[in-house]
Amino acid sequence: MSTGEPTEHETRSAPERRRIQSVAVGFRLIRALEAASAPMSLTQLAASADMPTSQAHLYLASYLHEGLVHQDQSTNRYQLGPFALRLGVAAMRALDVVALAREELDCLRERTGESAHFSVWSERGPCIVLNVNGARPLPFASRLGFVLPLLSTATGRAFLAHLRKGEGADLLHAERTQGRWSASDIEAITADVRRQGLSFTANMLNSGLAALAAPVFDYAGAIQGVVTLIGPSEAFPADLSSAQGAALRESARALCARLGKPG
Fold first, then answer.
1. For the segment 150-197, what is each residue's pLDDT rounded down to a tens digit?
2. Cα(196)–Cα(213) distance, rounded to whole angstroms?
3. Confidence band (pLDDT; 50, 70, 90) for 140?
4. What is the topology classification, in CATH, of domain 8-91?
5. pLDDT band at 139; cut points 50, 70, 90
6. Which helix (H) or strand (E) covers residue 209, if one does?
7. 95-258 placed in CATH 3.40.50.20
8. Under 8 Å CB-to-CB from 249, ≥6 apart: which residues?
9. Domain ranges of the chain
10. Is the pLDDT of residue 39 over 60?
11. Angle (CA) 159 216 239, round 5°
12. Which residue spans within 14-158 are E strands per DSSP?
């Protein structure tokens, strides 16, 4: 029978809930600063965080002390502080793009039923480091460690469009000498990938196969890998706005977000 008095468990847990709620409330200020394009006044911050200025001031005083927030003494405006920067850099160092991609490839297979792989850049070109099999039987299986060409694969084209200037130049030159690719062909390919955000190839490296690929960028805008969907060319749509294309875009955006790329 209840006596109306709080139990020992309730007495312990209530302050813990209040502390957790306090952190959540305070971080509304941090999120406002993170989204701001310029330093903010106390009034602006309080309004963005939907809290009284007196409450916002108390939180900011603590954040200033810890270096999470910096206040310009000449304008009294606030911005993220040096500890926030160090925290962000530490988080980026801790990220493992391959581990993150593994989770996303499984989700992509569930959404589309297609086979998929994730590739990173190597000295020899785009290298497959993850692979998941879809529901459709394929005439060719992606192998871990397989290095893909730049011009005749969707994966290679996605890399080619976003590599740093001069990167992969020797590989590109070797492929050009082996094929019939002109400089204008390559310019058209890279421009199309940048415009569309995806690359598509069919019946090029392997007859009967088509592929859609999307680049993945980090917080600095550098390409970290490419997610690729593969399917039979007769059933795999070239339309980049298809269901497969939409799912691939979603997966690439999710990976970019987890790597800190602004939306």
1. 999 999 999 999 998 888 898 898 888 887 888 899 999 999 999 999
2. 11
3. low
4. Arc Repressor Mutant, subunit A (1.10.10)
5. low
6. strand 209-217
7. no
8. 197, 198, 214
9. 8-91, 95-258
10. yes
11. 75
12. 69-71, 78-80, 115-122, 125-132
